Automatic annotation (TrEMBL), chains A, B:
BP-aspect Gene Ontology terms: DNA recombination; DNA repair
Pfam families, per the entry: RecR_C (PF21175), RecR_HhH (PF21176), Toprim_4 (PF13662)
Similarity field: Belongs to the RecR family.
GO terms assigned for molecular function: DNA binding; zinc ion binding
Record Gene3D superfamilies: 3.40.1360.10, 6.10.250.240, RecR Domain 1
InterPro entries per UniProt: DNA_Rcmb_RecR, Rcmb_RecR, Rcmb_RecR_Znf, TOPRIM_dom, TOPRIM_RecR
Residues in C4-type zinc fingers: 63-78
Keywords: DNA damage, DNA recombination, DNA repair, Metal-binding, Zinc, Zinc-finger
Protein name in the entry: Recombination protein RecR
UniProt keyword Zinc present: yes
Length: 205, 205
């Protein structure tokens, strides 16, 4: 018998718990905790949250240039003239772009694929924003390097390889972010594949 | 630099992330993950979620009898004639009531205190639904036992003691849920206090 189907607080709370439990990483217990927190919060907060949720769906679309989530037709990064237009960093998801921005290590432009190649999950090239990337590059010159910053796993590497093959005709340098033992990480606890990669990609000091 | 203050996806998403991050147990990363999941979900889901959130605040109040969260003036359990009216289980929070219902081990009525005595946190008797409990018991006869099912910790025990003292004049039996080594739990890993309680409350086989 689940909290969702249990009698008591009545429909509104049960419905909210049910809906929250559908979010990723939110189990039934978390959904209940969140729902009760929302119930206890002041009206101003719940109104704001309720509005924000409908807002993101209504007002948030994809940037026509980089395919990142944007409130406008073109996102703030693509509009930022100070960003280097000669380098484009290709990421799988918006949160990857956010992570890079948080780190503040990249001053070029981005392109969000919204996924990685994953044949087993039925995700092929057509599911990703690859044609948009191609169009963007064919459109105007000036782009000298494409850095593929997909995660260093099978899907991420396959996607990186695919992108490099796809852009070969354009004669633009396609690079891949380095992977190896995480900075601050313990070699002792690094997994086999990471160590293998770390050795393979070793560089002169 | 935080994800919330980072540029990019624009205001709607940032605002949603900020609001979600205010929920208990939701850090910035989780808030971002949830917000992006909401963005990706279909319009029907976001509308439902948005409505459910405003609904709970508008339509959810406290049951006039047991003080549990209820969509109506009286909750479904208090209205359920099959529930034993002679036993009332006093719990701290709605989720405790839900947990007992999930277990399906109690067929009596409930009373939700909405907290436990915690002087350090400034929670005194007046902050709890104790007067409501007293009024409920003085109101009508027929209640033979009050089971205090607050958690077996300092605050929970203090609250249980307070309730028993409070109801002494009414001559109603006040009992406390048993506590000890959890069923299925390993004695080896039980903490000192639990073992102490388990020995103290030992019973004849």
């Amino acid at each position: 018998m689940s909290a969702v189907s249990d009698p008591g607080p009545g429909d509104p709370l049960r419905r909210l718990i049910k809906l929250l439990a559908r979010l990723p990483g939110i189990g039934e217990k978390s959904a209940m905790r969140l729902a009760l927190a929302i119930v206890r919060s002041n009206a101003e907060y719940t109104r704001a949250l309720s509005e924000a949720i409908s807002d993101v769906h209504e007002h948030l679309g994809l940037c026509s240039v980089c395919c990142d989530l944007a409130a406008a037709e073109v996102c703030s990064i693509c509009l930022d003239a100070r960003r280097d237009p000669t380098v484009i960093c290709v990421v799988a998801q918006p949160q990857d772009r956010m992570a890079l921005e948080r780190a503040g290590v990249f001053r070029g432009r981005y392109h969000v694929l919204h996924g990685v190649l994953d044949p087993l999950a039925g995700v092929g090239p057509s599911e990703l924003k690859l044609s948009e990337l191609l169009a963007r590059l064919e459109g105007r010159a000036g782009v000298e390097e494409i850095i593929v910053a997909t995660s260093p796993n099978v899907e991420g590497d396959a996607t990186a390889l695919y992108v490099s093959k796809l852009l070969e005709p354009l004669g633009i340098a396609v690079t891949r972010i380095a992977s190896g033992v995480a900075v601050g990480g313990e070699l002792e606890y690094a997994d086999m594949t990471t160590l293998h990669r770390a050795l393979e990609d070793r560089r002169k000091i």
